[in-house]
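@here heads up, posting the sequence + SMILES for the zinc ion run so it's all in one place. Ping me if the SMILES looks off, I pulled it from an old spreadsheet.
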Amino acid sequence: MSMNQRATPDREALFAALELFVNCGDTKSDLHSFRLQHPHFFQAEFYDQSEQLAKAGKRDNFFNWLKGQLRAVWEGRDPAGTHLGVLLGIQSVSYAGFGGGDFQAEVTEHMAIFGDFIDLCKPPSEEHAMVGAHMLFAARITPDWQGSTLQYEPTIDFQHAVYMLMNESWRARVCPICRRYLIADKPANIYCSTKCSGVARQKRDLEYWRSEGKARRSKRTKASKKRSSFQR
Ligand SMILES: [Zn+2]
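bot reply: prediction finished. Complex structure tokens:
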């Protein structure tokens, strides 16, 4: 599948925004400062609605929900590709619940997070209800007959960034030292910073000192004991 070339924002700029988003904190000021830096990464309505909930002290807002979905994909916790489909806007958010009061409460909670961004379908039965929700920022996949391929047409920069990252999915990594999410430049790039790679090196040296060094020290002690027994 190829990418629609109509408007291609700078790839590294999109990756920088995506990296900032996936590492963003959960508070209203985290959300607000992200919006100030990247006002067009998502739609204004999306920011507005999430900010309203954040101001009311709710961490369960669309912004944080989407970040959680992205983290699952980034960490490889999405083998079936369901979260990825939602992020790319080619799969609807599906939501399963059970009949009764709990279900109604869950639907209400769900509506509070997504607000106007979804259309909830009617549950097929009260006992086992399934709710399908469509993201309003749905992307399109169209056939490109001349190129004999499919074209992906994202609606927002966020989708564009996720699509490009997934085309080079080896770049999506989690720093083993500080757990920060990073987009690697080179395959050898494992750590988020020189600070973390320094910490990793120190750890390795310490391990070496503990295992190899211990073996050597014990060899030396044995040798010196042997020597001293000969001397006797
Ligand atoms: Zn790190």
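MO: The chain has a mean pLDDT of 82.
MO: One more: Residues 194-231 form the longest helix (38 residues).
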